[in-house]
Inverse folding.
């Protein structure tokens, strides 16, 4: 297999990344160390937790960030859907999530 894609300039790879979905980016970060370095930041630019029960996914985000603290700097938008107010801890969870994830200063926290 040719390694021509690895020789593409970084800015061209990033331009390609803007047209890919999360699944494709997830695959690309596994291709090589070069691709991992380029595409990982694109993969985490928007974290969208839209499951019916997002609390466990938020906790997974916390755990991932504890292992790899630099990832929080990549996150520009954090979307969390379907949080229930039953426990009264929803807003606290969101705020702790933003703090725990070490989000970049300009990150946007959305609750669609």
């Amino acid at each position: 297999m040719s390694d021509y894609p690895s020789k593409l300039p970084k800015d061209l790879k990033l331009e390609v990344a803007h047209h890919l979905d999360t699944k494709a980016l997830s695959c690309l970060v596994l291709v090589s160390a070069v691709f991992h370095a380029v595409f990982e930041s694109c993969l985490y630019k928007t974290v969208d937790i839209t499951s019916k029960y997002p609390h466990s996914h938020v906790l997974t985000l916390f755990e991932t960030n504890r292992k790899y603290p630099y990832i929080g700097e990549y996150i520009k938008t954090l979307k969390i859907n379907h949080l229930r107010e039953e426990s009264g801890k929803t807003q606290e969870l969101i705020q702790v999530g933003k703090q725990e994830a070490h989000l970049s200063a300009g990150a946007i926290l959305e609750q669609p």
